[in-house]
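Long-time lurker. I teach an intro course on protein structure, and each term I like to show students one example going from raw sequence to a predicted 3D structure in token notation. This year I'd like something fresh instead of my usual example. Would anyone be willing to generate the tokens for the chain below so I can use it in lecture? Attribution to the forum is fine with me.
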Amino acid sequence: MIVLALDTAGIDCSVALYDAASDRILSVQTEMIGKGHAEKLMAQIEAALAEAAITLQDVGRIAVTIGPGSFTGIRVGVAAARGLALSLGIEAFGITTLETMAAHHLAGSGPHPVVAAMDAKRGEIYAQPFGADGSAIDEPRALTPHAVAELAARHGAILSGTGAMAIAAATSGEAGEPAAQAVPDRFDIATVAKLGASKPGGSEKPKPLYLRGPDAKPQIGFALARS
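-- Reply from a regular --
Happy to contribute to a lecture. Here you go:
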């Protein structure tokens, strides 16, 4: 089975093709763009297919990051994944950015509990604890840095991700916001593909995972009266 993986949840626009039968990544296309995922994604998919020398009709499953992350970017990726899956008659699976971070960390450092933590700014951390086997211990939540530090201690887990710096700054009493902002959240697209291949068939269609509302809100009191 060939898995097409998409990530537009952060600053990257990433696509990968993974052959689950041979456990081989066929191609990866990643570009750090920050914004403009909608304009870039289809070109990245075409480039990945060309590199792997296959067509969309060869794809048997789609995996897409569903958040938490960029409000607009997530919607772009999820819409593309669902549209492609519908047109190809295959399943699409949602992969959270936190489970991607945890799986990537565990693949590189060995089995141990880990708390995937993303700096959500505004004094919050998106966090979720995972066991040594990568299975989720609890639901993802937006928490204070101190609450995440307590969560990690309770599970004897290692903190992984941009949230770790914000937590270290908050728990040490230092103002570390500029340092925390210096490293953006990035999600390994090969890991997304492999997680997508491992999902059981029949799962629900991917939908965005938002742990809080969008930063941009409509202005109140400026609506035009209807005639």
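Some talking points for your students: The chain has two domains: 2-96+185-198, 98-182. Residues 83 and 92 are 9 Å apart (CA to CA).
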